[in-house]
Amino acid sequence: MMQGRVNRLFKKDLYVVESGQRWKAAACEPELDVGQTSLCEITDKTLDAKPKDIEPIDYENVLLQKKAQIISDPLRDMLLFPNEDFQIKTLKRHGRTLCSTVPENARREAQSLLVTECIKTYNSDWHLIHYRYEDYSGDFRKLPNKAPRPEKLPLHVFEVDEDVDKDEDTASLGSQKGGITKQGWLYKGNMNSAISVTMRSFKRRFFHLTQLGDGSYILNFYKDEKISKEPKGSIFLDSCMGVVQNTKIRRYAFELKMQDKSSYLLAADSDLEMEEWIGSLNKILQSTFEAAMQEKRNGDLLEISDDELPNQGKTEHVSSWESLNSELAKSTREIEAKKNEGRLKLFILDADTQKLDFSNIEPDVKPFEEKFGMRFLVRCNDLFFNLQSCVAENEEGPTTNVEPFFVTLALFDIKDNRKISADFHVDLNHPSVRHMLPNSAAVMNGGEVLPSSQKLINGVPESLLQYPKQGIFSVSCPHQDIFLVARVEKVLQGGITQCAEPYMKSSDSAKVAQKVLKNAKQACVRLGQYRMPFAWAARPVFKDTQGTLDKNARFSPLYRQDSNRLSNEDLFKLLMDFRKPEKMSKLPVILGNLDISIDNMTPDFPSCVNSSYIPVKHFESSSKVLVTHEVEEFFPCIAKLSQPFTIYNNHFYVYPKHLKYDSQKSFAKARNIAVCMEFRESDEEDSQPLRCIYGRPGGPVFTKWAFTMVLHHHHNPEFYDEIKVELPTQLHEKHHLLFTFYHISCDNSSKGTTKKKETIESQVGYAWLPILKDGRVVTNENQIAVSANLPVGYLSYQELGMGKHTGPEIKWVDGAKHIFKVATHLVSTVYTQDQHLNNFFQYCQKCDSGAQASGSELVKFLKSLHAMEGHVMINFLPTILNQLFRVLARATHEDVAVNVTRVLVHIVSQCHEGLEHYLRSYIKFVFKTEPWNSSKCKTVHEELTKSMTVLLKTTADFLTCNKLLKYSWFFLEALIKSMAQHLIETSKLKLFRNQRFPASYQHTVETLVNLLMPHVTQKYKDKPEEARNANHSLAVFIKRCFSLMDRGFVFKQINNYIKWFSPGNPKTLFELKFEFLRVICNHEHFIPLNLPMPFGKGRVQRYQDLQLEFTLSDDFCKNHFLVGLLLREVGSALQEYRDVRQIAISVLKSLMIKHTFDNRYMAKSQQARIATLYLPLFGLLLDNVQRINVKDCSPFPINPSSNGRKEDLLHTLQPGTASTTPQRSGNMLDSSIHRDVFGVISGTASAPGSSTPSINAVRHADSRGSLISTDSSTSLLERNAEKSNSLDKNHGCVMRCDKLEQSEIRSLLMCFLHVLKSMSDDALITYWNKASNAEMMDFFTILEVCLHQFRYMGKRYIARNQEGLGPMTFTHEKRAQTLPVSRNRAGMMHARLQQLSSLDNSYTFNHSYGHSDADVIHQSLLEANIATEVCLTVLDIMSLFTHVFKSKIEVWRSSRQARIERVM
């Protein structure tokens, strides 16, 4: 690849040469062909051509000056931005639940700033800026109407496909096309022994079945497997009539019956091979037959007699030109309508519109939503033990378990040794068993006697929530080491071993059952509210890390609980050995079965309540409905697995762990210890516990207290209970947990049945745990002391040391040692455990309350936010960002604003590690500035812009600067949204654009742009990602400013941007520049921004009077700034190396495709108006006519892997070939018009292979030499001389003359043809009248090149190029002896082509080219339609030309005839 720089002259008015400036070339292409001249050798002798600076128009002023002209323009909608181009749109927040998750009184109770802001976040609707035409602001692939593509493209028949035998060389090319269909060893019967074929006449040969280029098949056979050699013989299958099995002569033999009644015997080595060969051959014959039938049907349709033709079609002569014109004049409208009927837009057929390109597609941004991991449904069906009996007194009823059991389910992750879900409590007891428990058992849960059916919990009857049997669990990181664990409890009776013993025996079950039932009834009456551990079981959940449920797994046997191994830590140890049978077999098993299944669940699962008992959508409130409970997942404290909170949730989980009571002397009996927990808001004497504890099945949904299970005869009991608390919205220092310890008497003697309740429960201590510590909720494990008494004001007790204390007198158990261990876990979306975040909000609340705010203090708290935990940052992301922007707008010190921006940069950088979509959701849906008040605060966009400029200026903090560049999109989009909200809320949209924002803000924006650019152009090597992101974000920002600010000011920022680039920049900088231009030019109102209107001197009354610009003059580039800038840069890029050229051409072409498919500009007049903006493309192509004049290469891009894909081959720069655009002067029409143009269309021109010079000839000679007739009145030397004269007038600079690549040429010509086809006839005639002789010749040269570049080459040629077979070699195909005598166009080869043509020719937009028949057909269909459309377009142009210049053509014809007569 040549990366050298060459002096370039694009246009006299466009480039100026600065004397004294010289520049060296960059790196040259490492590989050059022998005889080539390096551009580096040329560069040192020339001057750099630097683009001339052109200041854009004052857009707003021009609109005012030309207001009358614009209003009177019939296409004024193309000149003006639409009214109300954007607006603030509020979307109702829709959650998963039927009602809001925020409690009704939460907003009123909240006092903390963090809690208040969180509630506001969860209650607020979505606020976004809606741009009415935003769908038109992207690539053409994102247009809302998509491309108006036909369902089926018309089928065109070309002779190159129809007459496959007409050119033997062409046919021979096809023989190389086919890929191997089948090959293998077969036995071939002697062809010359047709009378008697014996076993000995068979010879072993290697057969190779292949497809010819014309679609027919040939069966070649060789002596060995080297198929590259000449075959020993061939069998053409288009002469085969059938394939049948023939085992009379030889096993596994089959026979090929031919048209001439001869046959060929072949034999395989096995029956399977024979069947495969027969199947393959019959399949080929079937397809050939179908193709022949299709051809016959097509032929019948095409056979039309001469009598059916129009009368004027039979006329061979026309009496005079007058009669012909008369006939044409009568049916002008009809002809015009028929001419355009069925015509296609060229860009519809372009290769770029065929494929989807996701490189520039922005991700779809959605509002924040509640997300879950892998969710699955757990159905609890039954718990069955071997002891069964009827529990009814009259012994009438079903056989059930003899006592009630209670199941608790939870998920455990043994890889991380972590409990990952809350407990799910289930009561699977039969109703008759439940009746064994007295109503007073609800006292255990702090219940009431009122019927639960009368109560509603969030609109759901409480009775529907009391006996859940289905739970939905969620796991964010599924893997094989996650277990579903079931713990089984029963009513307290005694020791675990004693109570489990009857269930571990299988003999005498009836008697044992009756005995156990009797004891159970007594225990239920006396101790029904207390539970004891009994058994446990587990099962794996997932098969893999993809979340595939292990549905076939079953629960393990029910293992007896060990009173000394009850903690979760002990359970993890047991689960580690779960897959080790030798260890699990040692555990005591209880005879029973736990029937619990797991299954996948649908997203809209009906009748669910979330973990706060709020009904989810699709809830059916019916008395018979089975409510499914969602079980809360405990997320790990990892940022990547965290998500922003979207709902109100305020749960607090308490885990009593251990009580060490073996050393206490305060109580005589303290063995069977139960812990009763309450949540209180005061330590006063009349304080009552709050009803905020979630109850167990069978009791109230919310209770005042909860009991733990009881271990029999344990002084140091361990507990595994989980108690779930709904925290109040606003916590204060008095909120605390109160634990009361009871000794439970388990004496079940007959005398004990009359004991009172007081003797059953004996209070043996108290402990308390404040909820808040240093303003944060207490979590993790806590060791606390136990007191023997509970005086009033116990929370105020505080040790002072030296035996002194404050507060009431408290009698401590065991010398005030911390003998009670309790753990807590907070799952809250309104409280945080992060100290830094908590302190920041507390200080902000202090400042808001009227306290004197200290800038240095605030900066200190802002800096501390850098140490905030990652998962906390993500969880509270919207609330944190809202508060930071609020502080930014109220900042009174620059240091505060800068540090706020630093924190924002830190947060944004942390979120970009896979969580960028959260930031995009925030900016689009959540970010909203506070109502502007000039006395209290400034605008966010003003302060943020200032602080960004400070950070970009700072060289010391380069890390923050680089992060700001890398994630600049966030800040620039925040600027845009703030600006838009400010304009709407302050009603400034009605003002003139130059009055919407103060001059100081515009100056700051300009400073920001000028500060960003050096970072982009200087850091593209060391920090490529930062440079690219900043470049793209700046382009999006400037593009959006067109809708908000003074558009002339925005033009200036674009102009300032472009000045940072120069010709000869490295490729990366070119990529950045054209990416910038691509984004800018994709603005939804690109056409109005370029003002496609007259700009002539004086008052132009009609658009037809406009002096059209066909060159990139200063006035054109100024008045039509964006399109002029793009065309200038494309023209400059054409003088660069290949990669740069392709990038530039791609941007231009994509933009023109977008105009074509834009349904706002579908009218012919609108397309013609748009075409006037691209008329300078004519001059651009004429300046490079020698570089695009390549007519003998493939008319579509060659496979990149093929040979010759080096950098462009260079021409020797000679005075005759180095040319510039000549002066456009004179209205004389050159009398030399190419006959080849008409010849190529009509088919009378010489074939490309014979008359067109070879590629080498084109590379080393003037590319137009072969296009000019020998009898032209203007010779090539004269034309070159004419251009040389203009060259001298253009500072003597030299343009590149190396040929462009095929894809570049086709793209440029496609754009050129689109402009020609779209522009009005008047505009084209104007161009012809203004063009010079040389320009006219170049114009028709380009037309001729279009015909050659887009000519149709046939299916075989397309197939070869798709397979990348390289250049075709002309060899004669050796015919086999089986070749039919006649193989005309009605033969099978043609039938095969017809078969291919009859395939579905639907327009496949996302088509990827391959090597199959369908791929070849699709590509050939596109190429055929392109060739047809190009030819018709050129014919239209030539028709218009001959009609307009008819008299001059007649004069030329007469003078030519006179010269011939004189010569003769």
Helix-strand blueprint:
Elements: E1 15-17, H1 39-43, E2 49-51, H2 59-65, H3 67-72, E3 86-91, H4 106-109, H5 113-123, E4 126-131, H6 159-162, H7 168-174, E5 180-188, E6 203-211, E7 217-222, E8 233-236, E9 240-245, E10 253-258, E11 263-267, H8 271-302, H9 311-314, H10 321-330, H11 332-340, E12 374-385, E13 388-389, E14 400-401, E15 405-413, E16 418-419, E17 424-426, H12 431-434, E18 456-457, E19 460-461, E20 470-475, E21 482-491, H13 496-500, H14 509-527, E22 531-540, E23 558-560, H15 568-576, H16 581-584, E24 589-590, E25 592-600, E26 608-609, E27 628-630, E28 650-659, E29 673-680, E30 693-694, E31 702-703, E32 705-707, E33 723-726, E34 736-744, H17 757-760, E35 761-770, E36 772-773, E37 776-777, E38 780-784, E39 798-801, E40 804-806, E41 820-828, H18 835-848, H19 855-864, H20 870-875, H21 877-890, H22 894-911, H23 916-926, H24 940-953, H25 958-966, H26 968-985, H27 999-1019, H28 1024-1041, H29 1047-1058, H30 1067-1081, H31 1086-1090, H32 1114-1119, H33 1121-1133, H34 1138-1157, H35 1164-1172, H36 1176-1183, H37 1185-1188, H38 1235-1242, H39 1248-1251, ...
Parallel strand pairs: 20-27, 26-27
Antiparallel strand pairs: 1-2, 3-4, 5-6, 5-11, 6-7, 7-8, 9-10, 10-11, 12-20, 12-25, 13-14, 15-16, 15-17, 15-21, 18-19, 21-22, 22-23, 23-24, 28-33, 28-41, 29-32, 29-34, 30-31, 34-35, 36-37, 38-41, 39-40
Helix pairs in contact: 8-46, 18-19, 19-22, 21-22, 22-24, 22-25, 23-26, 24-26, 24-27, 25-28, 26-28, 27-28, 27-29, 28-30, 30-33, 30-34, 33-34, 34-42, 35-42, 38-44, 45-47
